[in-house]
Amino acid sequence: MNLKLIKKYISCSFILILTGCQNGCQQKKIEQTLTPLPQDPLIQVYLNHSETSEYQEPYKDKKRQGDDLEKQIVDTIMGAKSQVDIAVQELRLPKIAQAIAAKQKAGVKVRLIIENTYNRSISSLSPQEVKKLKSREAQKYKEYHSFVDINQDGKLDTKEIEQRDALVILDKAKVTKLDDTSDGSRGSDLMHHKFVIVDDRFVIVTSANFTLSDVHGDYTKPETLGNANNLLKIDSPDIAALFTEEFNLMWGSGGKTSQKFGLKKPIRAPRTIKIGDSIVTIHFSPTSPTQPWTNSSNGLINTNLSSATKSVDMALFVFSEQRLADILEGRHQQNVQIRALLEKSFAYRSYSEGLDMMGLALGDKCKYEVNNKPWQKPITTVAIPSLQQGDLLHHKFGVIDNQTVITGSHNWSEAANSGNDETLLVIQNPVIAAHYTREFERLYKKSQPGLPQKIQQKIKSQQKQCQKIQSPSTIENKSVQVNLNTATLAEIEALPGIGKKTAQQIIDARQQKPFTSLKDLERVKGLSSSKLLRLQGYISW
Fold first, then answer.
1. SS3 breakdown of the chain: % helix, strand, coil, rounded to 5?
2. Where is 484: in which H helix or E strand?
3. What is the distance between the alpha carbons of residues 437 and 314, in angstroms, rounded to a whole number?
4. Interatomic CA distance for residues 161 and 155, integer angstroms
5. Burial of 387 (0-12, 13-18, 19+ CB in 10 A)
6. With 432 labelled, which of 3, 173, 330, 464 sits at a CA distance of 20 to 30 A?
7. How many CB atoms lie within 10 A of CB 517?
């Protein structure tokens, strides 16, 4: 073989790997490395990074390993005969929008709720608005522009927009949609749901937003596979009824006053349903910090973690709930194997419980997180997965004793627990658990355990620079509580998460009416649910 042919062969092979045989290279069938696991007939699991299947990406000439999550959503919607309800943070996939539009045209009742931040067509941004975008949003716009620009002429014409812009497709079809500001408020902390209900029977629950980056991968980066996500397809009228109840609370019965997002929704306890061979417990966030933490979604996670006798495996986008880390430490001391995979973007931040599990603490401006508690007996099984550059670990699941799965849209954080609209499911079924265990093992096998040298250096540097850094065990003294009805401005300002402005607002509010409970503080402007949660144990009246 001459040099010219060798170069051509190498070039073609490289393109084959990156683009899935664009530009004329002969496409080679992807070898399935694993045998598919049995599926429960009523609750099926799909993973966009699965090594048991392959699919043709719908927007690129590329065949790749994984389950096509978009197809599962589209097929479920297209099977609708009477009604489709969708609550999702972000919807940008045109095939899903086209399926929704088609069912609306066919006479199916369609209702759609989107998070207010994403309830606008990107193509509607003016050149001036595009110029003002921050770097992350500017990159998203650039990615979107490339995706919509089908003929790649650098311009977006009406035909391209109507074919690729999901929100334009929905608006043209006159699909009724609202967001979490439709009740006249500024919105919940985050409308973070990702579920679909069809015909009061089928429910899709996923960790994925309906976007290219979450499902298939970035359009301009053919090597990406999409953020690692999972999807459940459930066949159960009883479970559908619970999700419909949650949806109806947000949708309302007519008019702004009837719509309830965030903490406006009534308090509801977790509910458990037997479906086939599975026991499913469902809870919807948020739960007010004024309510017992044990009644919240994180409280439900805590209850199940406490039951672990052999192992706990976690693949989490965010892990920042201290009380969950504390219960895991107790399980570890009882010889339960604890393994954690954390998204690199959040794994080494000062509030990450991954640091706790490794017996480390990282301060923020020479102060530790409130109640921070590094483990006395650290573990070496905390790791970050090795993913394609641009892909994130977006899972929010845990597997307990290879029997019980915790999953949904709910990140293991205070914000998800007390501010966001979220879904949490706990499923007891070893057949379903096996899918999540295999996904964990796949990611863990290629992970990077321990602390990167960069973070080690950061901790050492901090120890030198912050000579007066407070100990995690003494940063806050709960034995001395501040009486909000008598405390000075300075005393209130010193409370966790309270600045001078909010401290003054607390004083103004108590002058009108003294405080008698934590719930009373909800009338103070500027006190978010997360701030209220931080105040627990530090205040009295």
1. 35, 20, 45
2. none
3. 9
4. 10
5. buried
6. 330
7. 9
Structural fold of domain 482-540: DNA polymerase; domain 1 (1.10.150)
Whether 425 and 407 have beta carbons less than 8 Å apart is answered as yes
Alpha carbon distance 67, 54 (integer Å): 6
Non-local (6+) Cβ contacts of 44 within 8 A are 232, 233, 234
Give the residue from 318, 313, 344 showing the smallest Cα distance to 452. Answer: 344
Between 363 and 268, the higher pLDDT residue: 268
* Domain chopping of the chain, boundaries: 1-30, 34-121+165-240, 267-455, 482-540
pLDDT mean across residues, the chain: 88
Per-residue pLDDT at 21 exceeds 50? no
So what's the pLDDT on residue 271?
Answer: 97
The CATH number of 34-121+165-240 is 3.30.870.10
DSSP secondary structure letter of residue 367? B
34: tokens are 């694993």
pLDDT value for 488? 79
In this predicted structure, the answer to whether residue 504 has a pLDDT above a threshold of 90 is no
Angle subtended at Cα 320 by Cα 317 and Cα 325, rounded to the nearest 5 degrees? 110
**What is the CATH T-level fold of the domain 267-455, as seen in this structure?**
Endonuclease; Chain A (3.30.870)
The better pLDDT of the pair 461, 75 is held by 75
Fold agreement (34-121+165-240, 267-455): yes
Cα separation, 502 vs 370, in Å, equals 19
Handedness of CA 240, 241, 242, 247 (dihedral sign): positive
Are 407 and 194 in contact by the 8 Å Cβ rule? The answer is no
- What confidence score (pLDDT) does residue 475 get? 37
CA gap 233, 204 in Å, rounded: 5
pLDDT at 434: 98
Going by pLDDT thresholds of 50, 70 and 90, the confidence category of residue 513 is confident
Quickly list DSSP for 428-480: E-HHHHHHHHHHHHHHHHTEEES--HHHHHHHHHHHHH-TTPPPTTTSS-TTS
